Amino acid sequence: MANEFLNNINEFNLKEKYLSTNPEDSENPVFIKSEEYVNKDAAVQEKSSHEKSAIAVSTTNLSVWFNDKPGIENVNINIKKDSVTAIIGPSGCGKSTFLRALNFMHDLTPNAVVTGEINILGKDITEYNSIDIRKKVGMVFQKPNPFPTMSIYDNVISGLKLNWGHKKGLYDEIVETSLVQSGLWNEVKDRLKISAYSLSGGQQQRLCIARTLAVKPEIILMDEPTSALDPISTAGIEASIHDLKKIYTFIIVTHNMQQAARVSDFTAYFYLGKLIEHSKTSTVFTKPKEKLTEEYITGKFG
Ligand SMILES: Nc1ncnc2c1ncn2[C@@H]1O[C@H](COP(=O)(O)OP(=O)(O)OP(=O)(O)O)[C@@H](O)[C@H]1O
Ligand SMILES: [Mg+2]
Q: What secondary structure letter does DSSP report for 12?
């Protein structure tokens, strides 16, 4: 599987575009990780067919309108549980609009109208209230947004404190587990009570991921979570996503084609508000079914 994917990338002359070929990059964690990821994908293929067929998110004719103009139009998609789906496409094609529809965020937008159906974990989204949906579907934004006046520790438990009423005795364990899962624990375990603002951008983003994980959602939406980060922080977050997809479903918007190829199992390509193609990532990047997808991934536009 791994070799096949890499050979395909070679065959289609896309290696230069999607995986670094610079010899100096042999020490680059991003490059090394990409090979590891492909190898680990083989293990994911071993999951039982029952698990593979389980659907986390399904939409039927989903459209979102802003002042009578569509942000996305008639999107029909099934997203598998415990997998990573990358959402790609040129700026303005509706990636964020799609993501935001999956946890009621358009409710907060004046003049936004959502039509069609969204099914989350087997239930129509309208059967959830706005608190329940956020217990199931967490969101990580492009810019790290820790609470500035809170410590690292309090940031991690902030979602729990607001909505869950967990017993205080569990907080220490949840903080440690969430920070281990987001790959930040070793860097902050001796200074949990200092301000979250003293962390670097990459650390703050991993803190925001820990805050999302602490709530134990089942689906995690990420809108360009590493676009402001350096390659090492990016590799750390990609590694966390890869480890966590055994227990969470990730839907990640990215402009970084290499990142989509590295971290995702499936890729959805949006163009002008429409879902053009949704396939296995290896297919999208090597033998896309649609000409529009091919033009985008080969850099003809976008
Ligand atoms: N609140 C809003 N009011 C009006 N139009 C909006 C609003 N949010 C999004 N749109 C429009 O919907 C379309 C899709 O926007 P969206 O933010 O989803 O694009 P995107 O693919 O995430 O782009 P980018 O890659 O630049 O983040 C755009 O034409 C945008 O102008
Ligand atoms: Mg966007």
A: T
pTM summary value: 0.82
Output the DSSP codes for 46-92: TS-HHHHH-EEEEEEEEEEEETTEEEEEEEEEEEETTSEEEEE-STT
- Reference 244, options 132, 85, 105, 83; nearest CA is 83
CA-closest residue to ligand 1 atom 12: 71
Strands lying side by side in the sheet with 112-120: 69-80, 55-66, 112-120, 123-124
pLDDT in tens, 198-229: 999 989 999 999 999 999 999 999 999 998 88
Kindly give the number of the ligand 1 atom that is closest to the alpha carbon of 89.
21
Residues with C-beta less than 6 Å from any ligand 1 atom: 66, 71, 89, 91-97, 109
Q: Whose CA is nearest to atom 2 of ligand 1?
A: 66
